[in-house]
Specification:
Blueprint (H helix, E strand, L loop, with lengths): L5 E14 L2 E14 L3 E5 L6 H8 L8 E9 L2 E2 L5 H10 L1 E4 L13 H12 L4 H14 L5 H5 L8 H14 L4 E5 L7 H18 L2 E6 L2 H7 L2 E6 L2 E7 H6 L4 H8 L47 E4 L2 E3 L15
Parallel strand pairs: 3-8, 3-9, 6-7, 7-8
Antiparallel strand pairs: 1-2, 1-4, 4-5, 9-10, 10-12, 11-12
Helix pairs in contact: 3-4, 4-6, 6-7
This protein binds adenosine-5'-triphosphate.
Length: 330
């Protein structure tokens, strides 16, 4: 990948929850990059810091509660230093977000059509008629039938799957450089999930959108992502192109994630032992050590500095060892 293709460059991002005198570190010095027209999958168990990371990129975390440091470079401009007014302009136009629960993103009192026209008129020079035309086109591209009629419906008249597609259509109607998709298909049944992922892949190709796709489901990530970052307790513990990560995972946590996924395995499934630590729980060295079958005393001294396996593959484990998993991508 060339330097000019880097759309979003997250450098040493630290996020701390402010509680009393001491902050609680939730996201720890993470480095992530989004490339032009590529999808980065971010995976990890519940509570590891995926959503906090995505909200921080859009600067949507309450500054009274969260402390941020590091750099968030969107096409070279540091979002950390932007005013609220500049960020408001960037949100929607240059970076858009879709979430797990589309219902909360819609105003129940206005039609789907009005959601499109308001968004497009606010962020572009488009007039009403043109904005409505773009809305209909985008709904059709998302595979929604009777797009004209759909524009006149209110959100409560649509199913969850329809609303999820409408939300993606609105987000992409602005042709944002970056789309942050936080568990966008988690609440949908597998058939709708499959259709939406296929449509997102098509739209990404058409608009060259860079996507940060967050999920706790490795099966979904494997289908949409070009590269995957695995998060554990606020650290990116492994990062690699998707096919490398699935065939030759190096971190014991990544290996455990793959071995616990029925769709990837022909051999006996293995559950991941224990539970992820709470953010207030104290630990030394590697936060995965107490669940890791390879853990060693040295792991308790590890500073979590990433090991470079090759230029595209990094892992945070002093005992990193490849296992031939050869997970099948369906
Ligand atoms: N507003 C908040 N106040 C206090 N703690 C919070 C708040 N929001 C998140 N946290 C804590 O920060 C940590 C990271 O949360 P986050 O929502 O980013 O996790 P996640 O990986 O997205 O989980 P999930 O997959 O369940 O959404 C969790 O321990 C969570 O409890």
């Amino acid at each position: 990948m060339k330097k000019k293709d880097i759309v979003l460059d997250i450098k040493k991002l630290n996020i701390e929850l402010q509680t009393g005198a001491n902050g609680i570190p939730v996201v720890k010095k993470i480095d992530l990059r989004l490339y032009l027209g590529k999808t980065l999958g971010l995976i990890g168990e519940s509570g590891c810091g995926k959503s906090v990371t995505s909200l921080s990129i859009l600067r949507l975390l309450d500054a009274k509660v969260w402390n941020l440091s590091g750099e968030l470079l969107l096409k070279g401009k540091n979002l950390m230093q932007m005013s609220h007014e500049d960020m408001r302009r960037i949100r929607g136009k240059e970076m858009a977000m879709i979430t797990q629960n589309p219902m909360i993103s819609f105003n129940p009192l206005i039609t789907i059509g009005k959601h499109f026209t308001e968004t497009l008129i606010t962020h572009t020079k488009m007039r009403q008629k043109e904005a409505a035309k773009v809305g209909i086109e985008m709904l059709q591209r998302m595979g929604l039938q009777n797009a004209h009629k759909l524009m006149d419906l209110y959100p409560f008249q649509c199913s969850g799957g329809m609303l999820q597609r409408v939300m993606i259509a609105i987000a992409l109607s602005m042709s944002p450089a970056v789309l942050i998709a936080d568990e966008p298909t988690t609440s949908l049944d597998v058939t709708i999930q499959h259709q939406i992922i296929c449509q997102m892949i098509d739209l990404k190709r058409k608009y060259d959108t860079s996507i940060l796709f967050i999920s706790h489901d490795l099966g979904v990530i494997a289908r949409i992502a070009d590269e995957v970052a695995v998060m554990y307790r606020g650290y990116i513990v492994e990062k690699a192109p998707v096919e490398v990560l699935l065939k030759n995972p190096q971190h014991p946590y990544t290996q455990a994630l793959i071995l616990s996924k029925p769709a990837f395995q022909k051999r006996r499934l293995e559950a991941i032992k224990g539970a992820p630590p709470r953010i207030t729980e104290k630990y030394q060295g590697c936060p995965f050590a107490d669940r890791c079958e390879y853990a060693h005393n040295r792991c308790l001294q590890y500073d979590m500095a990433p090991k470079i396996i090759d230029p595209l593959h990094q892992v945070c484990c002093i005992q990193a060892r490849g296992i031939e998993v050869n997970a099948c991508i369906s």
